[in-house]
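Write out this protein's structure.
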Amino acid sequence: MKVLKSIVVGAIVLSHAVVTMATEVNCNAVAVDGSSVNITTDSDSEQVQSTTISLDRADLRQPHLLRVRGSGNMERVDVKINGRLVKSIVNGSIELDLAPMMKVGSYQVEISGTSPRLEDTISLTFTGTNTNISQQSSGSGIIKQILVIDVQ
């Protein structure tokens, strides 16, 4: 008998296109305007939602804001860029301008936390020139959102 361990829900808005996804212990992949979204849940109760986007380096002259919020009983939510811890939040939210941290290249922004209950969530928004992404994941176990940003 397989027990449902988690539910992942996400909504992504990219360049005026909207994609909404929900998954119960399976994998989905969606492509939107040259960007891609993958949602997976493995047997270890780790949920991963991954979004890949491309930015033009000229657009980095304007702020590109990442807003992260953990809710419910999430003790701590970590924000890492290319594996390096940038910020941790406890029962709250943060806003970071990623534009000054990026130049041409690829960046993996990982937002993760551990949740004891299904109703706990991690929400993120990333806004900048021609870019607007909103994601929310909820469930128990390890919740991880990855935003891969390719700057060209």
